[in-house]
Design a protein that fits this description.
- This protein is 20% helix and 34% strand.
- By secondary structure, the chain is an alpha+beta fold.
- The chain folds into 4 domains: 1-42 and 96-132, no CATH class; 46-92 and 135-192, HSP40/DNAj peptide-binding domain, CATH 2.60.260; 197-269, Urease metallochaperone UreE, N-terminal domain (HSP40/DNAj peptide-binding domain, Sandwich), CATH 2.60.260.20; 276-298 and 308-351, no CATH class.
- Helix 4 packs across helix 6 (322-351).
- A zinc finger (CR-type) spans 67-149.
Length: 352
């Protein structure tokens, strides 16, 4: 029997529970939860989950919008199929750990001002197993795991964004001594394209048109995630106006039926130089808009009484003449064209 009493401080004592058995006998078998290997500490379990792994992946812009499937090669640890993760040669016998005597635990004693203090811990030699490998497996050299390369397929759902993390269960490193494998975490990054920017589930772009197209209206080609489409520019479009293509944005993650919009901000381009003929036409347009006589010059018409309608309550309301509405719209269009022309002429006079 070996006792820690009077021993050197900080020393390991083999078979630390012999003293307990000397007082209470080996038939005590310990308290509930004890397996006879230690005082209240069962032998350490050898089943440990493997390490988790990380893989960084970059997706194309459209692949993040619509989803895709990616395949890549991964290097990870797998359980040795020869020794089944034990690390020992098949048919060989395990030997008892000489440090803990097969208990998997050791007692460390230290001298304190209050007397001797003993602490039970896992055996540093066998790691709590109580046994040591006598002959190592030739394939894994006793590690119980081997490093292999494996092709992994990952399904990317629609609507993922930069920073999204996908978990692939069971594709991490295998656990030691046949333990279960860890998981693989795929961190996503998204390529950017200059034509389209993404803000959540909405997409945004900038469309440049001439000042004449802004006045008269036009149809332009615009790039979307579904390809090139025609974008209708209405007459009188102002710089900074936003046109919306509904449900042409990105789908919501895990809810693909919900989809954002594609927003187009209009940018009106004014040329730095114009030809002599263009300048003459602009000056003529400016004179038409800025001259009060020309602005109000219309075809003579016969004065007609205002049309009235009677409401249910009996009150009389006046209905505007259709020609007056058209003239008012034409006046607004000419005013807008004149303001653009004046701005262009002023720039030419200041810079040419």
């Amino acid at each position: 029997m070996k006792s820690a009493v009077g021993g050197q401080a900080g020393s390991y004592t083999t078979n630390p529970f012999d003293l307990f058995e000397a007082f209470f006998g080996p038939s005590m078998g310990g308290f509930p939860g004890m397996d006879g290997s230690g005082f209240g500490m069962p032998r350490r379990s050898t089943v440990t989950k493997g390490e988790d792994l990380r893989y960084d992946m970059t997706l194309e812009f459209s692949a993040a919008i619509f989803g895709t499937e990616k395949e890549f090669e991964l290097s990870h640890l797998e359980t040795c199929e020869v020794c089944d993760g034990t690390g020992a040669k098949v048919g060989s016998k395990m030997r008892i750990c000489s440090t803990c005597g097969g208990r998997g635990q050791v007692m460390r004693t230290e001298q304190t001002p209050f007397g001797m203090f003993s602490q039970v811990s896992v055996c540093p030699n066998c790691g709590g197993n109580g046994e040591m490998i006598s002959e190592f497996c030739r394939k894994c050299s006793g590690a119980g795991r081997i490093r292999v390369k494996k092709d992994i397929k990952v399904k990317i759902p629609p609507g993922v964004s930069k920073g999204s993390i996908l978990r692939v269960a069971g594709e991490g490193d295998a656990g030691p001594k046949g333990g279960p494998p860890g998981d693989l975490y795929v961190y996503l990054d998204i390529e950017e394209i200059p034509e389209i920017q993404r803000e959540g589930i909405n997409l945004s772009s900038t469309v440049s048109i001439s000042y004449l197209d802004a006045i008269l209206g036009t149809i332009v080609k615009a790039k979307t995630v579904e390809g090139t489409t025609e974008l209708q520019i209405p007459p009188g479009t102002q710089p900074g106006d936003v046109l919306v293509l509904a449900r042409k944005g990105a789908p919501k993650l895990n809810r693909p039926s919900i989809r954002g919009d594609h927003l187009f901000t209009i940018k009106v381009s004014i040329p730095k130089r114009v030809s002599t003929k263009e300048r003459e036409l602009l000056e003529e347009l400016a004179s038409l808009v800025n001259t009060p006589v020309n602005r109000t010059k219309t075809r003579p018409k016969v004065q007609q009484p205002a049309q009235t309608t009677e409401s249910e309550s009996g009150s009389i309301t006046q209905k505007p003449d259709e020609s007056e509405v058209q003239n008012d719209l034409w006046k607004q269009l000419k005013d807008f064209a004149g303001s653009v022309a004046n701005g262009a002429l002023k720039w030419f006079k200041d810079n040419l």
